[in-house]
């Protein structure tokens, strides 16, 4: 009894298996079974490929969007009236105005902690004081020496000089709404406030300033959402590169609109030149689920289904070697079988 079935059907089904996962394997088994009595495909023995020892990665592909990362709301605690707003797309650096209230600038400070109280001489120590001193020092106002959590007369002196440079009242005090604190430079994605509105409240939506990819995942794929993990990126109109997951947030969705909760991943682009000249666009993102090191692999086209079940490969001598298949990756499949060795040639359709 002949072992072989139509190799083209096998290859097509295997491709489906790679895309569909477990369900695809079931489809493949049925196709192979139904073709048990089919005439074998006459393979061209000149088409061979070596069995390679290599590293393979089981990956999942998800489409993301190139931009500047996930948007976040930015609000103000400043009193007064909004008299100036930045343009959409504007990039705001440390010390520059985020907006204007009562014709006075409200600058951007860098830090992980927002100001939660007014700062002035005689106040208790706190990490918010250090945030202010670190920013004053970075902007060239260093009367107090090394930044710490103590608000001293030297801190007040540095504040006065900074206030004078920015056209603000020189009182050596800083209200909790006098500056906007963010982790770094910001890019204005959209405005949510208008001129003439109260300064206290939502102002705009912002992002980081570096190119980033945003990907939405189903909750069932949470295992892929690990901060610090590397992914492969294929940018439409750009070049292939890698990325790093830098943030994971949750989008609850709107049940009334039939929307399900999702995970929103922000992925930095390791090589910004890969996205050069591309403002926005889709990005194929490959997440690595598992890896295999130093395994034997052959092209998917070398696999054939056996009439008695399972799979095999055909050597140059025409003998069929039954194999157990493992993971699929980029046109290759992991194989194990008695007599299979690195470097030997197997017949393939590719």
Radius of gyration, whole Å: 30 Å
- What is the number of strand segments? 20
CATH fold topology of the largest domain: Muramoyl-pentapeptide Carboxypeptidase, domain 1
Provide the residue-averaged pLDDT.
88
CATH class of the largest domain: Mainly Alpha
* Biggest sheet layout: 6 strands, antiparallel, barrel
Region (Disordered): 241-260
Domain Peptidoglycan binding-like: 125-176
Pfam families: PG_binding_1
Protein name: Putative peptidoglycan binding domain-containing protein
Structure description:
With 350 residues, the protein is mostly beta strands. It has 3 domains: 113 residues, conserved putative lor/sdh protein from methanococcus maripaludis s2 fold, CATH 2.40.420.20; 136 residues, Orthogonal Bundle (Muramoyl-pentapeptide Carboxypeptidase, domain 1); 80 residues, Beta Barrel (Elongation Factor Tu (Ef-tu), domain 3), CATH 2.40.30. 15% of the residues lie in helices and 38% in strands. The chain is built from 4 helices and 20 strands. The strands form 4 sheets. The chain has a 6-stranded antiparallel beta barrel with strand order 2-11-14-13-12-15. It has a 4-stranded antiparallel beta sheet with strand order 3-10-9-5, with no helix packed on it. A 4-stranded mixed beta sheet has the order 4-6-7-8. Strand 18 and strand 19 form a beta hairpin. Helix 1 runs antiparallel to helix 2. The longest helix is centred in the first third of the chain and has 14 residues. The radius of gyration is 30 Å and the shape is elongated.
